[in-house]
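re: ur question from yesterday

yeah so i grabbed the chain u mentioned. its 222 aa long if i counted rite. heres the sequnce exactly as i have it in my notes:
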Amino acid sequence: MAPPPAPPPPAPARVIVEDSEHEREEGVEIVHARGHMEKEAIERGVAPHADEMSKCYTMKVGHRRWLGGHVQLTWDIRADGTITRVLLDGDLGAWDIEKCLLDVARAATFDKPVGGDADFALPLAFSPTSPTEPWDDDRALKAIGKQLAKLDACGKAEAPPDDVTITIYVGARGKAQSVGFASPTSELTDTWAECAHKAALAWRLPNPKGAIAKLAIKYRAH
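ran it thru and got these structure tokens back, copy pasting raw so excuse formatting
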């Protein structure tokens, strides 16, 4: 049997530098406040890693043709150009791909910001080639129920992240097919995420009966 066709690469990204004064130029929204990154400096830092980011998805998605969504990577940059943290937000729902994207993002290097510490965000889109059945918040909460509390054990070795969105794909017999994590405010550490990933894959969920269901639930939300 011939292998399934490779999923399309991520859609072209729009770089957003989030601060306070807004400026738009060729699809890039630059917002200035304390310090800011020049558009050219962002492109010089991101461009060498664009193929690696694309391969995080294309090389790992495999037969999960229903897997897709949006990811936003946010870099916090010190005045000397040091990356202090990288945040990942979105609804992709695949920790192996999300971890790959974070590893690539953490390895990037950037010029010094103009005017002090700065941050900027890079949105990415990954398109599935097979549909999913979305479950709303109420159905997701009912499906997971008290099992969510099992993630608390993952925070014993180190402080767990806050405001985490857990995205899960559910297949035959209610088995989790893929699990991923995102947070707009907290950095996802490998130790916590790998523990939470293992725990969530073992959850018992309702059977979507012939479909792949996609649901999301909040953990440690403010």
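noticed a couple things. Residues 17 and 120 are 4 Å apart (CA to CA). also DSSP finds five helices and ten strands in the chain.
anyway ttyl
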